[in-house]
Amino acid sequence: MLQNLEIQNYRLFQNLKIEDFARVNLIVGKNNVGKSSLLEALHLLLSQKSPMAALDFLETRENFSSKAPSPHRSEYELSTLYFGHGAVGTSPIRLYATGQSSMSLEIQRKPEANRADFIYGNGQSTQISLILQKDGTRVSSSNMKATSLTLPNSTYVTTKGFDYNFLAELWDKIELTPKEQAVINILQIIEPNLERISFPSSRASNSGIRLKLKGQDQPVPLTSMGDGIHRILMIAFTLVFSEDRYLLIDEIDTGLHYRTITDLWRLIFETAEKLNVQVFATTHSLDCIRSFAEAIALHKDKAVGAIFRLQRRGEAIQAVRYDGERLMLAVDQDIEVR
Hints:
Elements: E1 2-10, E2 13-18, E3 24-29, H1 35-46, H2 51-60, E4 75-77, E5 93-99, E6 103-110, E7 115-121, E8 125-132, E9 138-140, E10 154-157, H3 164-174, H4 178-187, E11 194-198, E12 210-213, E13 220-221, H5 227-241, E14 246-249, H6 258-275, E15 278-282, H7 286-298, E16 305-313, E17 316-322, H8 324-332
Parallel strand pairs: 3-15, 3-16, 10-14, 14-15
Antiparallel strand pairs: 1-2, 1-5, 4-9, 5-6, 6-7, 7-8, 8-9, 11-12, 12-13, 16-17
C-alpha cells in the first residue's frame, strides 16, 4: 500500500504532502481544491511505464483507464497538467510515493530536444520519451514502441456512465469464481433479492445485463432497476477486479441514496482487506462522510479508513487527516470536515 504522497507542480498543487494513507481513503473538501486532481496524480504515478494509457484517460475522461491506450489517438495536451498551466521552462511535475515500496514520476519538457521525458522510479529508473510539439504544449506517441505500453496498476472510476464492454470483460474473469459472490453481496445493498447476474453473449449494450431475483421466474433487465444499481455495479466490479492493485473512485456517492452508503463502505472495507486493494475516493457530501465514519465505527479495525480534507491556506493547498476516532468525534460535534 501507499503510505505517503508528495505532488509538485501538478494542476492545483504547487507542493502538496499527504502522510499516513489507510486501506480506504476518502478525499473531501470544498470545490476547486483539487479532489479529482489528486486522483489524477495518483493514476499517473501508478501507471508505471505506461504514460500513454494515463494520458489517454486524462484526455478523453472515459470511465475506465485499465485498458491499453487508444490506437486512434496520437496527441495529448500536456501544458494543462502543470501548476498554473505553466509555460515551457517551468519546473517539472514531480510525483513521489512511499509505502511497501517507493515509486516516483517526473515529467520534464525539453523543447530544445523536441521531447518530453517521463522518468519513472520504482527500484530502478526508467525513462520514456514522447515527441514534444513545437509549441511545447502537446506530446505525441508516434515514437512509442508497443513493448513499452503496459497496463496501469490502478482503475479510475469517474462520475459518468460505465463502459459496458469493459464490464463484460471483467465479468468473464469474475463469473464462477469466489469474486462473483462478493459482487452479489455488494449489489444486494440496492436489491436484497438479487441471486445472479447474466451478461448476454452478444454484448451489444448494457440493456443486455439481466438480474435473477429471488421469487421471480424471469430475469429482470438492469435498465429497469434505477441509476443507483448501475453505480454500485461499477464499484463492485472494479473493486474485485483490483485485487493487489489500486482503485480510484471520483464522487463515490453519485446516484446513491444516503441510506445505502454506510453498507457500501462496510463492504468496501471488508473486500479491500480481503483482496488487498487500496481505495482512494472523493466526495463533497456530508452524508457520505457521516456514513464513512459510521462504517468505521462498526468495523473491527478502526484504522481501516481515513479522511483527508483538502483546504486552501493562501495560495497553497494542504491536507488534514482524520482517522477513525478523530473522525467520529468531528462528525459527532459537527466540526466542518468537508
